[in-house]
Amino acid sequence: MKKVIKNIFKFFLLLLAVGIIFIAWANYSIRKESNAFVSYRIADIPETKTALLLGTGKNLSNGMPNAYFYNRIQAAIDLYKSGKIQYIIVSGDNSTKDYNEPEDMQLALMKYGIPKERIVLDHAGFRTLDSVIRAKEIFGQNKLVIISQKFHNERAVFLARKNRMEAYGYNANDVNKYAGLKTNLREYLAKTKVYWDLLFGVQPKFGGEKIIIP
Known about the structure:
Blueprint: H1 2-34, E1 38-39, E2 50-54, H2 67-81, E3 87-91, H3 101-111, E4 119-122, H4 128-137, E5 143-149, H5 150-162, E6 166-172, H6 181-199
Parallel strand pairs: 1-6, 2-3, 2-5, 3-4, 5-6
Helix pairs in contact: 1-5, 1-6, 4-5, 5-6
């Protein structure tokens, strides 16, 4: 009996080691493949008709402002006012009546002078994968600039390029490393799941009629 328990324990240790190695490899490979296409410098971003602004809540669970949200809004404003983009798809979660990331982003952008007609709402961006693939399949964009923090852009740009899109990432300012610790740890698993989604051809939760961006 002791021998059986010992063998089971060794098996689980082996699985754990394999899992850790795979997580490390997935994160390394996604960063490496996307590195040439993401930047903090507007000068590095090519002129593109449309940007994809990835959503997050404007407030934290404790009611405080979410720095991730406001830094992304500022990045989108800077990119638009530079003349590099003409339209912004705001894509996020609208799973309940009282939680609407796309409209929150739209209102924030309009507050800083971006015309409403230049902002396109995607209420079905429940995951990064959904936002990226819907930008192509629903909104007809094969080339776009993705706006989020660097760790997020790495994954989004990687996904977009694996789905045959010409994608670039404009990095918003990050947040304090301690404030963003939970998010950064979660990102390790999110990057790993990318390979699962690609392997099994996971598609967005919702489709819909195509929406033309002029």
